[in-house]
């Protein structure tokens, strides 16, 4: 896979064994070490962000969520009191 020209620089210190491993993997992939590192780092970053930004629910939890979203909103007493208090404060300041 060809990558766009780099605009930013990132320095990384590696153990000799790590660099040798990465060099072998890059060569096996037909890529330069730089291109391989960029590709591998981006793939891993995408994987982590997908895992950390997606919500997974069981079917039971999904059904409960959809059911809750389908019900009309009804504020509880504490929320109703807070909204009334905020409205009074706004009227006083106006």
From TrEMBL:
SUPFAM superfamilies: Ribbon-helix-helix (SSF47598). Keywords: Toxin-antitoxin system. InterPro entries: Ribbon_hlx_hlx, TacA_1-like. One of its GO terms (biological process) is regulation of DNA-templated transcription. It comes from the Bacteria. Pfam families: TacA1. Belongs to the TacA antitoxin family. This is DUF1778 domain-containing protein. It comes from Natronospira elongata.
